[in-house]
Every structure is written in structure tokens, then in C-alpha cells.
UniProtKB/TrEMBL annotation:
<dbReference type="InterPro" id="IPR052642">
    <property type="entry name" value="CC-FHA_domain"/>
</dbReference>
<protein>
    <submittedName>
        <fullName>CCD27 protein</fullName>
    </submittedName>
</protein>
<feature type="coiled-coil region">
    <location>
        <begin position="73"/>
        <end position="100"/>
    </location>
</feature>
<keyword id="KW-0175">Coiled coil</keyword>
<feature type="coiled-coil region">
    <location>
        <begin position="4"/>
        <end position="45"/>
    </location>
</feature>
Length: 177
């Protein structure tokens, strides 16, 4: 149960990280789209300029912005690739942890069934032991009564001396013969 709880906590942590990374991925994709839109807007502005001076100044500005945006896009794509790799690893880890949880649950269920069988057998054996003890007490009681009657019958006959000490079964048999 402790192992399952630990594995479930690890699974929850991994899933939390996976959700956070997916959220970051979506945010990066959104920024990437915004940057692309800005790039398109700047390109549109460039086309609408009519004067040559403004065109030149705008061209320089746009080129700088384009360069900056390309760098940002490259960085965002790199981050996105890293996030995708991390997501893949986390999904693999989550899959492994889920398999371990399933295995642990199966083994725990198997152990519980075995424990139930052993407990049932132990209860049966206890009942049999109790029945055997009761039967033994009965037989012992009958044997003692029977032995007592044999001793009384043997030593109450004429010419027999009563015993001075406790008799063994062999002594009773010998006196009886």
C-alpha cells in the first residue's frame, strides 16, 4: 500500500509537470503566432510607404525587427522542441509508473486472496483442533472411568490386597490376570 501511494504521488507530480509544460508550450506557440503577426504587420507597413526616404528608413527598421523576430522565433522553436522532448519523457515515465501501480495492485490483490485462503485454513484447523481436544477429553474420561472400574473389580475380589501406592497400567493388568 505504501509503494502504491508513493507511486501514485510520483504519478501525480509527473502529471502536474506535464500539464505545466503543455501550458508553457501553448504560451510559446501563442507568442510565436504574435511575433509572426507582428512580422506580417511590419511587412504590410513597408509595402504601404510611398516615399523613398521613408522606405529606406522603414526598410532598415524592418530588417532589424525581422532579424530580432527571427532570433526570437528560433529561440521559441528551440524551447518548443525541448518542451516536446520533455513531454515525451514525462509521458513515458507516467506510463511506466502506471504500469508499476497496476502491477503493485495486482500483487496486493493476489496476496490478499492468499491471505484469505490461509486464514480460512487456519480457522478450519482451529475448529478441528477444538473438536479433537473435546474428543480426546471424552476418550480420556471414559478411559479413566474404565480403568477405575477395572481396578475396583480386580482388587475387590477375595484374597487380593488393596494397592498401597498408585498403580501403573502394567500392574493393573498383572493383578487382573
Amino acid at each position: 500500500t505504501g509503494v502504491i501511494s508513493s507511486l501514485q504521488r510520483q504519478l501525480e507530480i509527473q502529471e502536474s509537470q506535464l500539464r505545466r509544460i503543455k501550458s508553457e508550450k501553448e504560451m510559446l506557440q501563442k507568442k510565436l503566432r504574435e511575433r509572426e503577426n507582428q512580422l506580417q504587420d511590419l511587412s504590410a507597413k513597408f509595402c504601404s510607404l510611398t516615399e523613398e526616404q521613408e522606405d529606406k528608413e522603414m526598410m532598415v527598421t524592418i530588417e532589424k525587427e525581422n532579424c530580432n523576430l527571427r532570433q526570437v522565433v528560433a529561440e521559441q522553436e528551440s524551447k518548443l522542441a525541448e518542451q516536446n522532448q520533455l513531454i515525451s519523457k514525462l509521458q513515458e515515465t507516467v506510463g511506466q509508473l502506471q504500469a508499476e501501480v497496476r502491477t503493485s495492485r495486482y500483487q496486493l490483490h493476489k496476496q490478499r486472496r492468499a491471505q484469505d485462503v490461509v486464514q480460512s485454513q487456519a480457522e478450519t484447523l482451529q475448529q478441528r483442533e477444538l473438536q479433537t481436544r473435546v474428543a480426546l477429553e471424552c476418550v480420556t474420561s471414559r478411559f479413566e472411568r474404565y480403568r477405575s472400574k477395572i481396578i475396583q473389580a480386580t482388587f475387590s475380589t477375595a484374597g487380593m490386597k488393596p494397592p498401597q501406592a498408585e498403580l501403573t497400567d502394567e500392574e493393573v493388568l498383572e493383578a487382573m490376570q
